[in-house]
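Hi support team,

I submitted a single chain yesterday and got back a structure, but I'm not sure I'm reading the token output correctly. Could someone confirm the output below corresponds to the sequence I sent? I've pasted both exactly as they appear in my results page.

Thanks,
R.
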Amino acid sequence: MKQLFVMDPLDRINVSGDSTYMLMLDACKRGHRVAYCTPDKMFVQDGKAHAELSFCMVIEEEPYFIVEEAHDRDLGFFDVVWMRKDPPFNMDYIFSTYMLDLVPSSTLVLNDPSSIRNANEKMFALEFAQFCPRTLITREIERAREFAKKENDRVVIKPWDGNGGRGVLVSSYNDPNFRSMLEILTDEERQYIIVQQYIPEVSQGDKRIILVDGDVVGWMARVPHPGDHRGNMHVGATVEPFSLTTRDKEICDAVGQRLKELGLIFVGIDIIGEYLTEINVTSPTGIREINPMMDIHIEALITDVVIEKWEERVK
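Hi R., thanks for writing in. Yes, this is the structure output for that exact sequence:
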């Protein structure tokens, strides 16, 4: 097979914790041809999606990526095109998905670009509001303050388009800095933010569960670093095993069926305590951390599903 990965520049990839690297490595181990490009190198000519891209060999030791000279190629040349660019999910990201919509149907594009657009990682979870914490989406400071006033404990405030824990704050209505925080996050009421019920169980870990074609394949708990409230590995959270609860399975069953319908093959959902907080569809991580903990190879499970779906498509 021939696989293209639309992704961040290779010099930004930390192979010790990068799931895209693992997918590329597994493809190379199987003898597939692997190429990569950054989203800014995609272009459309005469209604066809193209990119300036480089084929590469991905290996397990330094330099990790052995890259050939870049050249232009019609994306219809590939059997599979992966969209693996990290957020922020801004207009550039959205426009990239429009270009990927023009890839011919004989090529499998993952995750489905129209579904990526529709399933914003923070907002998509609210399709399953019965599993979510109390949540307000607003850019009005007074509305956010009123929501916080009704919460007996703290609240979480965060950008609607952030990732990696950036911009996530914990405060309360009585915090003298609360209004100032809201002013900064909303950019003086020009940007929407999320105001959410604080879940104390975050101290026990933010649970990341990986679903492949809607089925649960692996999981881990990301425990915040002492002195921090964010369960993100980017900011020092540690990884620990846990056992899925009945509630976790109920959430996964409900979300998994929807993921199948939308063509979202590789997804990571986040659960804190008994609450669904995010559904990560752009470039979920966790393969590197979960594999040794559970003695599995998630990247191989994903590739198996991708091959099966591509073969169904070209029959």
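A quick pointer for reading it: The chain has a mean pLDDT of 94. Let us know if anything else looks off.

Best,
Support desk
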